[in-house]
Amino acid sequence: MSTELQAVIFDMDGVIIESEYTHYSSICEAMGEEMTVSYEHFLEKCTGGDERFAMGRMAKLSGISFDERLFQEWSRRKATAYARLVAQEARAMPGAIELVESVAEVLPIGLATGSRRSDVDAALSVLAEGRLTGIFNVIVTSGDVDKPKPDPATYSRAVEELDVAASACFAIEDSPNGMTSARGAGLRVIGISAIHSEDKLSEAERVLSTLIGVSLADLRQWFAEPVD
Fold this sequence. Notes:
alpha/beta
């Protein structure tokens, strides 16, 4: 196993952008008044995968029957609502912009997300006045893999496109499903407990409450430490 950090792959929602409520609001708008899942229940039961996972869980919890045609209609409405809402309220997670930019000056970086490509593009175009647009060497979205998180495919594709060994990468994740995906692909994982409590992030070797003050030097030091 490599002891030298060669790349960092970031999740997006809950790591780089504070967008879970934006996703929730846009899904509510897309699915309509029959959707009865609270925001708290959404965070607990419906995050960490792609929008098909989230909407499917929300529909089941709300007792809503749907077929592929209706899902595609929800998806279209959700994309439109998300683009509008994220432009109004995009907020970076504390310390995230600074860490992404500083790591990108030295190492290749990737974005591995369960969001759709249009949501990623909409968010990056407005977040921190577009400072992260074009900064990632690789972006893998839910539409780029057959099986989204928690399947390892998202992170496996990211390390393949970065042309680095998975064992030489840190993934920075905030959800149990995302950590399962990263660990399954062979990456080491740092957890962010902004949304999920630390006890639910047991697959991370280190859990942080925020990225404020975290530097590339910190990441390199942690990566060099033995893993239990």
